[in-house]
């Protein structure tokens, strides 16, 4: 790969190049707050999910979308997961 490593992308940024990782993370946060991004609720109707459905946010970064969805639909997200990397702190 470009950085001559077998490490997964996020693991590399967390361990080998933390400055670049922090810059990437900041860019993702800015992208999330940009007006060009449509919220997932405009694409998927979460009201149709049964009570306590399992929702998995894979590659969720900081979990912005997950947190918003779980707050809007608390009974839908009780069995939900945020899966990006090793959990350091709870998302919700």
Explain what this protein looks like in three dimensions.
InterPro entries: SAM-dependent_MTases_sf. It comes from Aspergillus tanneri. This is O-methyltransferase domain-containing protein. The chain is mostly helical and 92 residues long. It folds into two domains: 30 residues, no CATH class; 47 residues, no CATH class. 35% of the residues lie in helices and 7% in strands. Strands 1-2 form a two-stranded parallel ribbon. Strand 1, helix 3 and strand 2 form a beta-alpha-beta unit. Helix 1 packs across helix 2. The longest helix has 16 residues. The model has no long low-confidence stretch (mean pLDDT 72).
Give a brief description:
With 92 residues, the chain is mainly alpha-helical. It has helices at 9-15, 18-33, 64-72, and strands spanning 56-58, 81-83. It has a two-stranded parallel ribbon.
| Helix content bin | 25-40%
Overall structural domain count: 2
Low-confidence stretches: none
Using the alpha-carbon principal axes, give the shape: elongated
Strand order in space, largest sheet: 1-2
Count up the helices: 3
Percentage of residues in strands: 5-15%
How would you state the average pLDDT, rounded?
72
For the termini, the CA-CA separation is 35 Å
Radius of gyration: 15 Å
Query: How many β strands by DSSP?
Result: 2
Order of helices and strands: HHEHE
SSE class: mainly alpha
């Amino acid at each position: 790969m470009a950085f001559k490593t077998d490490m997964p992308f996020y693991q590399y940024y967390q361990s080998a190049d933390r400055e670049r990782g922090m810059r990437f993370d900041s860019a993702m946060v800015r992208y999330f707050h940009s007006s060009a991004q449509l919220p997932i609720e405009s694409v998927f109707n979460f009201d149709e999910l049964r009570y306590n459905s399992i929702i998995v946010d894979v590659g969720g970064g900081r979990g912005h979308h997950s947190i918003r969805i779980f707050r809007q639909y608390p009974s839908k997200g009780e069995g939900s997961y945020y899966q990006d990397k090793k959990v350091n702190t709870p998302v919700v």
